[in-house]
Amino acid sequence: MNKKVAIIGAGLTGLSAGIYLQQKGIETEIFELSGNAGGMCTTWVRGGYRFDGCIHWMVGTLPGDAFYKMYLEVGALEADTPIHHAESLQTEIEGVLYEVPLQLEPFRQFLLRISPQDKKKIEHFCTAVSAMGVKTPDGFGAVLGFTKQLIPFMRVLKRYTSMTVREYAEGFQSQIIRSLLCDLMPPQYTVVGLFMMLGMRMCGNAGYPLGGAYDVIGRMETKYHSLGGKTRYNSKVDEIVVEYGKAVGVKSGGQFYASDVVIAACDMYDTIYRMLEGKYHHQQLETMLDSAELFEPLLVVSFGLKQKLGIPDALTFNYAQGIKTAPGLIADRIFLRAYDFDPSAAPYNGSSVMVLLGSQLDYWQNLRQDNKEEYQQQKKVLADTVAKALEDRFPGFTDAIEVVDVATPATYVRYANLYRGSWEGFAPTPEYIRAKIKNTVEGVDGLYLAGQWTTVGGGICTAVKSGKDTAQTISHDLK
User: Fold this and answer.
1) 448, 261 contact by CB (below 8 A)
2) What is the mean pLDDT of residues 189-207?
């Protein structure tokens, strides 16, 4: 009799695990909370415009990288998928707009022009960035070459993992550079995350696949189903059924679905406290869920414009009037994304534009539950306020608007049942970045945890790899 695996969640991890298991001849069935695959790798399609709710860039887009090979294996990318690499990003500091190059030598020269007196520190910074911009080895021959690159990589990890971006930035004399670094990466995160983000982007190994999250998930879903995998949409799992210390299936919609193994590729708080009813413990995860810093809940305000206005790929700027994102919470910095480089993002000559703002979950979730009419009204107020801010920056913006969409933290919870609205799990702070989260639950055999909540810092490559690694473990255990 064929072995069967029940997978909770049709996001990147669930689809990845399903694909690899199906290829091993193991029957799988995915139970997905929402009506679509993707989880947090989601896209909103409105009136011919696509608003990518996930991908800004993804590590491993360089051919020859092990992650790139993995993306091809699961269909996330195809060999001919065009990859966009932004040449720069723009950020406003103390009223001055800076264009930050995303190539190493121009970046170094850019910093030196700002602060020649920081030359020694800038050289050290660029060396660290370069050390982190390496391809993940694919195959034995590549590992031999990678070993030479690994030495400076490991030196950077050893020296800087415990240091925050803010602490590292304080070593520069220039206030502009200090502000810039804390703009590129939240100041409380490990500075290694900053080195890695810049290094991967500057070496061409972290681009944006044209078609975005919509096409990434579409290809993976198609591949999974072509291998015989099954998906039950709008099927919230009510319980992971455990008998005599072993997971034997799941309950959804009042019906029991038997399986030999269960993969929880979903929210870990929900897994431990609702689907397992708090009967079984994972002390490490429970502690981290209670005390570790999470990624901040987001408001995503999107606009479909009937014409291009020359908005850059990425722009962060000050807005003195401020934007209210929740009671008592005012955003005076606006992070803007435009997708003019991707023809699939908008109708011909149109433009897909998104603004990301930090927010707070409880306000939006309670408002949606208690008064949906007021919830919709507050979304409109927010969209109007953001549109005015963009009109001030880009004259003609409001007249060009054809489509408006607002995703609140409550939207993300509805789509993916996210604990505290955290869109990428545990934040990469020095305290927890080294954490190796165990992927099993004490007292429950046959249950495997996978996905964003099992890897601090999250990310697309780690989500897909988590699914692959889990599938390989299960394939071995079921022999």
Assistant:
1) yes
2) 96
The tokens for 193 are: 């995350």
Angle at 323 between CA 318 and CA 327, to 5 degrees: 140
Top pLDDT among 140 and 283 is at 283
Q: What is the pLDDT of residue 433?
A: 94
Asked if residue 49 belongs to a domain, the reply is: no
Range of the domain at 150: 86-203
Q: Are 432 and 292 in contact (CB under 8 A)?
A: yes
Residues 6+ apart with CB under 8 A from 351: 304, 305, 307, 308, 309, 311, 338, 339, 340, 345, 400
Looking at residue 137, its pLDDT comes to 54
The pLDDT assigned to 435 comes to 94
Distance set, CA 302 to CA 34, 166, 326, 422 (Å): 21, 31, 18, 20
Q: Are residues 70 and 119 in the same domain?
A: no
Distance between CA 284 and CA 262 in Å, rounded?
Answer: 20
Q: What is the DSSP string of 206-218?
A: EEEETTHHHHHHH
Residue 97 CB neighbour total at 10 angstroms: 12
Domain boundary among 416, 437, 459: 416
Indicate whether 120 and 95 sit together in one domain: yes
Residues 367 and 406 in one domain: yes
Residue at 238 is within a domain = yes
DSSP one-letter code for 172: -
Q: Which residues pair with 93 in a beta bridge?
A: 96
- Give me 324's structure tokens: 């209210």
Q: Is the Cα dihedral 55, 59, 62, 63 positive or negative?
A: negative
CATH code, domain carrying 179: 1.10.405
Shared domain check, 435 and 392:
no
Q: Count how many domains the chain has.
A: 3
Is residue 421 assigned to a domain? no
Contact 103, 202 (CB under 8 A): yes
Residue 172 lies in a domain: yes
pLDDT in tens, 389-445: 999 999 999 999 999 999 999 998 988 889 999 989 999 999 999 999 999 999 999
Task: Kindly report, residue by residue over 132-159, the tens digit of the pLDDT.
Answer: 887 665 543 444 444 556 777 788 888 9
Q: Report pTM.
A: 0.95
> What's the CATH code of the domain at 278?
3.50.50.60
Task: Please answer whether residues 40 and 298 qualify as being in contact, where contact means their C-beta atoms are separated by less than 8 angstroms.
Answer: no
Per-residue CA distances from 400 to 105, 306, 355, 375 (Å): 38, 5, 16, 25
Instruction: Note whether 311 and 405 are same-domain residues.
Output: yes
